Amino acid sequence: MRFILLAALFVGLAVPAAAQLDDRLNLGGAAESYTALRLGAEPDFLAARTRADLRLAFDYERGRIVIRPRLDYDALGERLRGGLREAYLDVFFDRVDLRLGHQQIVWGETDGTFVTDLLSPLDLTEFLAQPFGDLRLGVTAAAATLYAGDWRATAVLIPRRPTSRLPAPGSPWYPLPADVLGVPVELVEPAPEDPTLRAAEAAVRLTYAGLPRTDVSVLWISGFNRIPAFRKGLRLAVQPTLDAALTVTPAYERRHVFGLTFETLALDPVVLRGEAAFHTAYLLDQPIEIPQTLGGLLDPDFQDAAARGFLVERPFLQAALGVERAFGSHLVRVQALGGLVIDHDDRVAQDRFEPSFTALWAGRFRRETLTAQVFAFYTPGADLWLHPALTYAVRDALNATLGLQVFGGAGGADPSLPGLLREPAPSFATYDRNDFAYLRVSYSF
Description:
Low-confidence stretches: 1-13, 15-20, 412-425
Oligomer: single chain
Order of helices and strands: HEEEEEEEEEEEEEEEHEEEEEEE
Structural class: mainly beta
CATH architecture: Beta Barrel
Radius of gyration: 23 Å
Number of strands: 22
């Protein structure tokens, strides 16, 4: 409650202040309250927070300065936190735009997964118990875009590898089991690397818009996986006090990604979109049998196998093709996705090819004051994510959303250590006990 008052004060001061500022200074933002209740025999709260976002943009003759601070009050943890979503400088030349600083880089538009959108890290601390748009974090980078007729070329340099934020141990979204045979499992993050050319990342995207109502892009990325992979394996450490712990160290491996994206309106009223990405070194599960007894953890053969890790690198091809059409005030979008393991062998747990499908329906009712939508993600025999929601526009800038998040799949009933955190996105089946309902009330200014 006290943070609701703080957010109201934040908005109340910002709005009249913006009206008195110079025309070159634009001030906007939003305040929202978000509550998520886990469903089940014993319901409990997954999230209860109030958030205030501010966007300050100052335009000058050849560019712009943008700062996006955020203030969060977590009612469950009784914590007040502040931070920056973005803080960057734009410089505009005749044919080149530069952007320097902490920024969000969005490449690709596939629903429910990330095919070529691989540059920005993710905030997985609460997984989907937050608006989907809040998953993406900013990355400190330098980006330059060159415009030449129907061509547009963008180059990005990231001096230091960013990593996604993981849930804390004890969180219902924590990807590792609390223990194996009574021995606690601990995640040990590697030491961060110093900013050097060896640790830097680079990306280039070339877009051609000369075809009728069609954009086509090719891209190249040399960087590291954003979501940690448990390649360093499982190690049993016995302390002098005879306390034992199983430690897992995530790995961030460099790989090269070659991608293609396109969007065309040439089939109007149908919109066709596609993405494809070839990874030179994609991390895939390999099966390691967890011992059934505590003594088995000390077996040299198991320790050797676990030390080598749960993952192997393989070339990998991922693609998505989507079709979208509007029917009056209704929108329908369906996608087919697939992942193909190149050089597949028996050590790789996944099938050579894994298909997935998504579907989205959204409609507006009651003079466009009520919006209903249903999104579904399905991988046959593996994953299910279902997200229905209703949004009511109380006033022009005030909206209330009531929704459900439902997870399921074959892998959720008996989770084991390998595969709990998959690249490039967590397995929804892992969280099949975390189905929840949420209420979001937001005010924009």
